[in-house]
Design brief:
With about 550 residues, the chain is of the alpha/beta class. About 35% of the residues lie in helices and about 20% in strands. The strands form 4 sheets. A 7-stranded mixed beta sheet has the order 1-2-6-5-3-4-7, with helices on both faces. The longest helix has 19 residues, at about 530-549.
Length: about 550
């Protein structure tokens, strides 16, 4: 397991801050080599990500991806407004300029935030769904969206992702087509890219500004009991971590008259105000106790303190006891929601990824709700949230969304703002914060220990792990417990895991290759405690290493 940096949780020293000018120069000046695999367009679970300094997120990438999106829209008859969101990473604004040059040249009906400020991922999802219900956007036809963000990644990174008309993360069939088309355009020296100068693009009739903030903020009572939060006078501290959530929290406080204190309103592309993450890097990860150290230090000043990553699709919940583990909060949120939303049909199910805590399984069983266990990636929850068959979808990495109070769709992408407000509602309605509710769950269901570790693996080994079938693992026990299931497909939908999961009565482990590093990830959990979990993880690494040998 990697060692924790001596800088972890401490203020970022000046010598690790990114040189923003150099970053932006490289975005325009460095031309990626399409003959080098690492420098091609590559769509992961959340779009294309990289850094201009590494030749993996440069102007040519964004021009090619934007043209591919235009061609995809045309092929599929998507001619409504394209809602564009952007976060506060240094590369996001240059990428927006490049994208607009292509979108305007293709006469796409682009919609941008009227204030010129950032727009979070969940707000783009909310806007797409509203427009496709006939709720606006200023153009006919189906709406879709782009969000320019690498999420919680370090300051030197950029990201670019596409949300189709269902409002959620694009599925693999879409991203594969876009990736292949973009790489073909790169290989052809961008000859197929239509483009106009930025000033002309910005002034084009098809590029307009709208108010994203008000429709989202004013619609929140449809999903959250705002009146309860206000009546209970819940004191909420908020750290947007320098991201797109800042203007939204300010508007939420003003519009709904909530006792919200913004503990940090600094927006700085170096993110020099951050506490350093576990590995010595700056990372706006609201689920990390190291990155959230400043807000955790203020926990006694508020009833509840919350944070979001830069595009606001993740949530961090700080109670009097400290930063709540994401798995713990998901379990508490599910327990509360399904007991407090009487308009949700009895058939509405609980959604979890297969590397999320088995506490969720036990909570769902206690509630009498079906459980949908899917591979890693929020895209697997989109259809269920859209049609209302799934009341909640959540990932162990602190991303989730859920239905409106009447059982209708709220967003089909992760909504960190919503989950933070749910923590406040839970505190207001029950008089107990989410950490206290989780402790009540452990009293009934046991207290699991959960961890994730990385193990070295080269590209060939990672490819073998991704394709590993369950019948290749000849394993009868893990840490002394009898194996009851070996999975290479998710039980909820039969989709390939891209790795394996091994389950016993009281524990499990899962192994998946990393998409960005020469490691594979081992997730594990045990209801027998930390010592047993250590044995589970050790056995897991032995089993997987033997399979890859």
């Amino acid at each position: 397991m990697a060692q924790t940096s001596p800088l972890a949780g401490k203020p970022a020293p000046a010598d690790i801050l990114v040189d923003v000018d150099a970053l932006i120069r490289a975005y325009y000046d460095r031309a990626p080599d399409p003959g080098v695999p690492a420098e091609r367009v590559s769509f992961g679970t959340s779009g294309h990500r990289g850094s201009s300094l590494a030749g993996t997120f440069n102007e040519r990438h964004i021009l090619a991806i934007s043209q591919a999106i235009c061609e995809y829209r045309q092929r599929h008859g998507i001619d409504g407004p394209l809602f564009v969101g952007v976060d506060t990473h240094a590369l996001s604004e240059p990428a927006l300029r490049s994208a607009l040059e292509v979108l305007a040249a293709n006469n796409v009906q682009v919609r941008l935030e009227a204030t010129g400020g950032p727009t979070p991922t969940p707000v783009i999802s909310h806007a797409i769904l509203a427009a496709n219900r006939g709720g606006g956007g200023g153009a006919g036809g189906q709406a879709d969206g782009i969000v320019i963000t690498p999420s919680h990644n370090p300051p030197a990174d950029g990201g670019f992702k596409y949300n189709p008309p269902n409002g959620g993360p694009a599925d693999t069939d879409i991203t594969t087509w876009m990736q292949d088309r973009a790489n073909a355009l790169l290989a052809d020296d961008l000859r197929g890219v239509q483009r106009v100068p930025y000033e002309r693009a910005r002034a084009a009739d098809c590029v307009r500004t709208i108010d994203f903030i008000s429709p989202y903020v004013e619609d929140l009572p449809a999903a959250i009991d705002i009146d309860a939060i206000r009546s209970a006078d819940v004191r909420i501290g908020v750290d947007p971590l320098g991201g797109a959530a800042l203007p939204y929290w300010q508007a939420i406080a003003e519009r709904h008259r909530l006792d919200i204190t913004i503990t940090n309103d600094v927006v700085d592309p170096t993110f020099g105000f951050m506490a350093v993450d576990w590995d010595g890097k700056i990372r706006m990860d609201c689920s990390s106790p190291y990155a959230m150290a400043r807000l955790v230090g203020l926990k006694d000043d508020f009833d509840l303190a919350v944070g979001n990553d830069t595009d606001s699709d993740r949530h961090g919940i700080v109670t009097k006891a400290g930063l709540l583990n994401p798995n713990h909060y998901l379990s508490a949120a599910i327990s509360y929601l399904f007991a407090s939303r009487p308009q949700w049909p009895a058939s509405t199910a609980v959604g979890k990824t297969l590397v999320s805590s088995s506490m969720i399984d036990r909570v769902a069983a206690e509630l009498g709700r079906d459980l949908l266990e899917v591979p890693v990636g929020f895209k697997w929850f989109v259809d269920g949230l859209l049609d209302g068959s799934l009341g909640f979808g959540g990932e162990e990495s602190a991303g989730a969304s859920f239905l409106r109070r009447d059982g209708g769709v709220w967003t089909t992408d992760k909504d960190g703002l919503l989950l933070c407000l749910l923590a406040a509602e839970m505190t207001a309605v029950t008089g107990r914060d989410p950490g206290e509710r989780y402790r009540e769950l452990t009293a009934r269901h046991g207290d699991p220990a959960y961890s994730r570790v990385d193990a070295p693996a080269n590209a060939e080994q990672k490819a073998r792990l991704k394709a590993l079938s369950a019948d290749r693992l000849q394993i009868e026990s893990v840490a002394g417990d009898r194996v009851v299931a070996v999975l290479d497909k998710a039980p909820g939908n039969g989709a390939a895991i891209g790795g394996v999961k091994v389950v016993t009565e009281q524990a499990w482990f899962a192994a998946r290759p990393s998409g960005t590093e020469d490691v594979y990830k081992i997730y594990g959990e045990s209801f027998r405690g930390p010592d047993h979990l250590a044995r589970v993880l050790a056995d897991a690494q032995t089993v997987v290493d033997d399979a890859l040998a």
